TrEMBL record:
This is Thioredoxin domain-containing protein 5. It comes from Nicrophorus vespilloides. Keywords: Redox-active center, Repeat, Signal. It comes from the Eukaryota. PROSITE patterns: THIOREDOXIN_1 (PS00194), THIOREDOXIN_2 (PS51352). The lineage of its organism: Eukaryota, Metazoa, Ecdysozoa, Arthropoda, Hexapoda. Residues 13-133, 135-254, 263-380 form the Thioredoxin domain.
Length: 385
């Protein structure tokens, strides 16, 4: 009987481990048969783990979000993992002495660099960017503004540069495969258009200057925006060939008015019903009443799907002074410490606060009705205190 119970327990544990990894659909799984051959073909960020490891389980959703972002066609970074309980030889060869161990392998190299920072998405993506830039895999060297070519924008010159005139701007990330393919076309476009002197072609690295990119709600790379006098007119959605891009510029210059009355009605953004807080004003913003806070990343797929529901939720509590629907962008530098302090380990993470104190994490269905009911339940409890 005892042996039967032990066997049944083992089966249940194995089933639980399998279920825990069923959703890892974007992460590449390597083993002793393919690790050495594959890791040298591209830059790799690898998690060496054990399925029973608590820290590994907590990192799992974040690692999968990272894979969803980077494991795309043309990307020069692969997010992978190795199970040290089944492929111990690989882990031993890479000096893995604890779980999880995270190592970055540069293309062509078998020795990895160990990640020693905080295991949140902003820290992980910053580490990746640092490793790639060390090898010179960033975007092309910018052409100086006064040369009549492509302008490289930074946080120091962005706002002043775009506040007047017509601009066609590429918002990009150095590790993005599609951005790398577009780079020479974008440079040629800048050279060709500059001769006409009617619009300025620019680019900005969103991994370095996140606040500028978030001003225009950049959620994917590359994003190509037409901006006039500091205001977004529209996002370019067409083919990224040189001739198609030139045709678009000619169309915008020839027919598009800078008047806000000429902007299509569907392009006008409604005021948000959600309060946007950051590391500087967070505690003040949640100090009274109920605050339902979504911690998110703009590029996160699950966050994007939740966004319209979150806006609708905010509308339901407009005019209610006791409830605030809030969002915090954890990719912004000003929010990095805040998200760490609040123990945000994956995106989106939703916490409910009462009078400045964290009460509960929401783990239920993300439908509007369930979110609304969760808040109403806590409103009743709040009133009874």
């Amino acid at each position: 009987m005892k042996s039967f119970v032990l066997a049944a327990t083992a089966i249940i544990l194995l089933a639980g481990i399998a279920a825990a990894h069923e959703e890892d659909v974007h992460t590449v799984q390597y083993n002793v048969d393919n690790f050495e051959d594959e890791v040298v073909k591209n830059n790799h960020f690898v998690m060496f783990y054990a399925p029973w490891c608590g820290h590994c389980k907590r990192l799992g959703p974040t690692w999968e979000e990272l894979a969803e972002m980077l494991n795309t066609e043309g990307s020069n970074v692969r997010i992978a993992k190795v199970d040290c309980t089944t492929d111990g030889d690989v882990c031993n060869a890479n000096d893995v002495t604890g779980y999880p161990t995270l190592k970055f392998f540069k293309i062509g190299e078998k020795e990895g660099t160990k990640f020693r920072g905080t295991r949140d998405l902003p820290s992980l993506t910053t580490f990746i960017n640092e490793q790639i830039n060390m090898e010179g895999h960033g975007d092309e060297v910018p052409i100086p503004k006064n040369s009549g070519g492509l302008t490289e924008l930074t946080e120091d010159n962005f706002e002043k540069f775009v506040q007047s005139g017509k601009h066609f701007i590429k918002f990009y990330a150095p590790w993005c495969g599609h951005c790398q393919k577009l780079a020479p076309v974008w440079e040629q476009l800048a050279k060709d258009i500059d001769a006409e002197g009617v619009v300025r072609i620019s680019k900005i690295d969103c991994t370095q200057y996140r606040s500028n990119c978030n001003m225009f709600d950049i959620k994917g790379y590359p994003s190509l925006l037409w901006i006039e006098d500091g205001k977004k007119v529209e996002k370019y959605q067409g083919s990224r060939g040189l001739e198609e891009l030139k045709d678009y510029v000619n169309k915008m210059v020839g027919t598009k008015s800078t008047s806000s009355d000429d902007i299509k009605e569907e392009d006008k953004e409604e005021p948000s019903s959600v309060m946007l807080l950051n590391g500087d004003d967070f505690q003040h913003g949640i100090e009274s009443g109920i605050s339902f806070v979504k911690f998110y990343a703009p590029w996160c797929g699950h966050c994007k799907r939740l966004a319209p529901t979150w806006e609708e939720l905010g509308k339901k509590f407009i005019g209610n002074p006791e409830v605030d629907i809030v969002k915090v962008d954890c990719t912004l530098e000003v929010n990095k410490q805040l998200c760490n302090d609040q123990e945000v380990e994956g995106f989106p993470t939703v916490f409910l606060y009462k009078d400045g104190k964290k009460i509960s994490e929401y783990n239920g269905n993300r439908s509007l009705e369930d979110l609304f009911d969760f808040i109403k339940k806590h409103m009743v409890e709040h009133d009874e205190l």
